[in-house]
Amino acid sequence: MGIQKDQIINLDAIVVGAGFSGLYMLYRFRKAGLNTQVFESADGVGGVWHKNRYPGARCDNESYQYNYTFSEELYKEWTWSSRYPEQSEILDYLNYVADKFDLRRDLQLNTKITAARYNEEDNRWKIETDAGTKYSAKYFITGVGCLSAANVPNFKGLDSFEGEWYHTSQWPKEKVDFTGKRVGVIGTGSTGVQAIPVIAKEAGHLTVFQRTAQYSVPARNYTYDYETIQKAKENFQETKRQMRESFVGSAHIEEPRPSAIEDTPEEQEKVYERAWEKGGASLLLETYADLLANDESNETASEFVRKKINQIVKDPETAKKLTPTYRIGTKRIVMDTNYFETYNRENVSLVDVKANPIVEITPKGIKTTNGEYELDMIVFATGYDAMTGSLFKIDIRGRNGISLQEKWENGEQTRTYLGVATAGFPNMFMITGPESPSVFSNVPVSIEQHVEWISDCIEYLREHDIEVVEAKVESEDEWSKHCREVGESLLFVKTDSWYTGANIPGKPRRFLIYLGGVGPYREKCSEIAANGYEGFSLLTSLKKA
Ligand code: NAP
Prior knowledge:
Blueprint: E1 8-16, H1 20-31, E2 36-39, H2 48-51, H3 72-77, H4 87-100, E3 107-108, E4 113-119, E5 124-129, E6 134-142, E7 164-167, E8 182-186, H5 190-202, E9 205-210, E10 216-218, H6 226-234, H7 236-245, H8 265-278, H9 282-285, H10 295-312, H11 316-321, E11 334-336, H12 339-342, E12 348-352, E13 358-361, E14 365-368, E15 371-374, E16 377-380, H13 389-392, E17 395-397, H14 404-411, E18 428-430, H15 443-463, E19 468-471, H16 473-488, H17 518-530, E20 536-539
Parallel strand pairs: 1-2, 1-6, 2-3, 4-17, 6-18, 7-16, 8-9, 8-16, 9-12, 10-11
Antiparallel strand pairs: 4-5, 5-6, 13-14, 14-15, 19-20
Helix pairs in contact: 1-15, 15-17
Bound molecules: NADP nicotinamide-adenine-dinucleotide phosphate.
């Protein structure tokens, strides 16, 4: 029998998103005996790895650490091909996980959750989807990702463009053919830096529209050999332990030296050169411990990379435009394969849109204050409305009908308790929500920690006949303050970036990532749980709080 009009389907839990977060949340809830449904707007599982199919897309965390660790069997069954695998391989992995654990039967694709409203009469969440179906669930969990609401700048005239245009995070499944075309890429963050070298090889001419010159370090990707794979599998338990206890959720990190300014310039050069050769995040993580806290120390690393850029790029004028001036690492560090080398190609040119901003998109291309660039295709690698954007796409309303957006943007500004819950929104949990380590970590590690904490919490509620769990206002005030203080003690807040919300016009500036470290954060969360979910109010009756 089909679903009747106006019928409401009752569930224990509803989870939004079928990426790393949603898949594992479903696995855990099912184990705990909760009747759960996951909703995903895309036509497949994978979250950002389903949607980010742009050329050159790969992970820049080491693959044997960028995966789940909850199942040793899964870890040992799956074999990664290289240090930084392509998007398609990570997507294959997530599909493998969905099949291995038989997750698809509780997973509804092509369905967007449009609204989630807390009903104080029965302490349940009423959920609406774009398919028109209505649900009611005791627990509402968001696994929407921190970087999934695309930022397409509101350029005048985009609709008039006669060529093709794409945003990297909404890339079509069909191959986009750049052969012989005049292509423009706007944006030189992690995404642009990955896409530009690949597009340049195919395009007739590539014009890069750069607003802020970016530090990028070589990824130094390589194919794994049999021994490396075996070693990673044998070391599973130790790698898992280190990832969970470390500062950024990564294992086998070499201890950095205390401070660059305690070393001579010659010693610094040696330390940075070694990290440059090793590739990946080594330059930030394994050189000096105070690079993100001390301006003077930071300048030594910034200058090292600036010199490298000037050695690689042959045309002095282009090299100058590509030389960044902000403090390295205060925008998310980028890792590349032949990014700066690409500007030595004959078919690549660079336009500085900070000096000459984009005025409009015309039918023929992009117009800056300096002239018009004729293009057949435009690629927007312009990033995301990070941290809160994907949550605000759903009309989430808690007590008294107040929406999350109203609470966080119009009122007291974003504040959460541990980044997992927020006052006024009972029985709702956010996986890698604002003010948790989230994107300043190897994200799957943070996801697993939140998922496990949330499912343990719900098991506790059930064991103790607790109907409602809700962050206390004073707990989130305190957590938010702590999060802000830790953030402000570091250099990030001094630079405009998606970290601070400065990339979105009109967005309130706040640093919404907890920088106290993955390991210490985990300990804090576990301690709160061990103390009977300290800082939350727990109600055993159906009475209003
Ligand atoms: P992003 O870092 O925010 O970069 C967006 C780029 O677009 C910046 O260069 C920005 O310039 C430019 N831009 C934005 N609006 C513009 C405008 N109106 N006019 C001109 N230029 C404009 O976004 P992203 O590159 O997509 O990366 C976001 C995050 O996703 C990364 O930091 C990373 O955490 C994650 N990511 C990871 C991987 C990976 O694992 N390898 C790959 C891709 C993304 P400004 O700098 O001046 O704002």
